[in-house]
Design brief:
The chain has three domains: 2-116, Sandwich (Jelly Rolls), CATH 2.60.120; 119-225, Sandwich (Immunoglobulin-like); 229-328, Immunoglobulin-like (Sandwich). The chain is 21% helix and 41% strand. The protein has helices at residues 2-19, 151-154, 339-361, 365-403, 417-423; strands spanning 31-32, 37-40, 44-52, 61-63, 69-70, 79-83, 87-93, 98-103, 111-116, 118-122, 128-130, 133-143, 146-147, 158-165, 168-175, 189-196, 201-210, 215-225, 229-235, 242-249, 260-266, 272-279, 289-295, 299-310, 316-328. Strand 19 and strand 20 (242-249) form a beta hairpin. The longest helix is centred in the last third of the chain and has 39 residues, at 365-403.
Length: 424
């Protein structure tokens, strides 16, 4: 009864602590509840289920592996059940092993906390990670504080490691099979290696091992920072057949004298033409730069590799260097000519110019014909204009002579017949 009261009190404390925050905080060993189904393995001492409602108060029903059901209003003394508008927290002592199911409309933040003899142990992982870093972690399963090596338990067990944050999700999957990064098969120890190819930010490092019998989980916070090492490649000088690789170290993050580079240079056929081995110990400057030239020849090249360094806190890191493509091209120069070739070229150019000038100075017969016709028409029009002018002048003079020949005659002064009629 005392255990039950303690469990109930703990459930109430958890309930109010969870409702006091706006987001879900994952405990170190919480297991996400997916599809309203979960499995409890044998010898589990205690299991706590946290159910988040989508639409206010609702009835949550737990279906046990044998088909029987648990309700908030009806359950044995070994079950502590606390409910409010947003959550149901159910703690069960010595729960039945096997598949369980929750009948309710739930959101995506439901979790399970299991206390049993089987525990997942993970070596210490850093809170601070770098973009393009490789992290390696070792995990092991313990039962009653002893390493689990029974093949019936660990055969088929898979270790997954994920970095969850926002829209980013980076996951890798490993087995205790002695392959890839795993040292020995079925020794109870699993090795995971993850490439942190993510943008800087805060993430949840989620490590889980699962098989048909049990699920165990470890959650840790992780913050991804920018890579503390950058580099650039360019020709030693214009037209040079040598490339110069310069690395810049962020001295506030890593020890500038601890950097070692292991890379390769490949040509356009993806063939390795030279290995790049560099150490900053003797060559790093006060500004955190070190470089080295490499004679290659004119071509297009690709550089890739890894960097190994020690952080200011003493942690050894392995960084992936992003590929870089560059080209070495010769300097462009005009081709040289001998004296005779230059004289011949000059003579040929002179002849071309003279021919062009002659063609411009000697118009064609067609062009001359049009010029003659135009001049002739202009001349005829000019002559016709003069003749017309002289003719009009002469006609005007004749008219003037006829009007001034003498005095008026008497006949011209005689009245007209109409005048005589009017006088009578």
């Amino acid at each position: 009864m005392a255990i039950f009261i303690k469990t109930l009190f703990a459930s109430i404390v958890i309930l109010f602590s969870l409702t006091s925050v706006a987001h879900t905080i994952y405990a170190p060993n919480d297991i996400p509840l997916l599809d309203n189904r979960f499995r409890i393995d044998p010898k589990t001492e205690q299991a706590t289920f946290i159910f988040h409602h989508k639409k206010g108060y609702q009835q949550v029903v737990l279906v046990k592996p044998d088909g029987s059901k648990l309700y908030q209003q009806r359950h044995p003394e070994s079950v502590a059940w606390v409910s409010n508008k947003k959550q149901d927290i159910v703690t069960i002592q010595n729960p039945m092993a096997g598949p369980w199911q929750a009948i309710a409309e739930l959101d995506d933040n439901n979790r399970i906390k299991i206390i049993s003899e089987v525990q997942l142990s993970v070596n210490r992982l850093p809170l601070k990670l770098y973009a393009q870093e490789y992290i390696t972690t070792h995990a092991a399963l313990y039962s009653d504080k002893k390493l689990m090596i029974n093949p019936n338990y660990i055969k088929g067990a898979k270790l997954s490691i994920s970095l969850l944050g926002g829209a980013s999700n980076k996951m890798a999957l490993y087995q205790d099979d002695g392959k890839h990064y795993d040292e020995l098969p079925f020794d109870g120890k699993l090795t995971a290696r993850l490439y942190v190819d993510l943008q800087p930010g805060r993430y949840l490092l989620h490590i889980r091992t699962k098989n048909d019998i049990f699920i165990r989980n470890v959650n840790k916070d992780a913050v991804v920072f920018l890579s503390p090492l950058k580099y650039k490649i360019k020709a030693l000088e214009t037209g040079s057949d040598q490339a110069n690789i310069t690395f810049t170290v962020d001295g506030s993050e890593i020890d500038p004298s601890s950097v070692s580079i292991n890379g390769v240079l490949k040509d356009t056929n993806n063939k390795v033409v030279q290995q790049v081995l560099m150490h900053s110990l003797d060559t790093v400057s006060e500004s955190g730069e070190f470089n080295a030239p490499f004679k290659l020849g004119y071509d297009i090249y690709t550089f890739s590799g890894k960097a190994y360094a020690t952080t200011r806190t003493g942690r050894e890191v392995e960084l992936q260097l992003r590929e870089s493509v560059f080209e070495l091209t010769p300097k462009f120069e005009m081709p040289e000519q001998t004296a005779s070739e230059a004289l011949a070229t000059q003579t040929e150019q002179t002849l071309i110019e003279e021919t062009t000038l002659e063609s411009l100075d000697s118009p064609s017969l067609f062009d001359n014909l049009w010029i003659i016709i135009a001049i002739s028409i202009s001349l005829l029009l000019f002559i016709a204009g003069i003749a017309f002018f002289l003719f009009k002048r002469k006609q005007k003079q004749i008219n003037s002579d006829d009007g001034d020949s003498g005095e008026l005659s008497l006949d011209e002064l005689q009245p007209m017949p109409i005048d005589l009629t009017d006088s009578k």
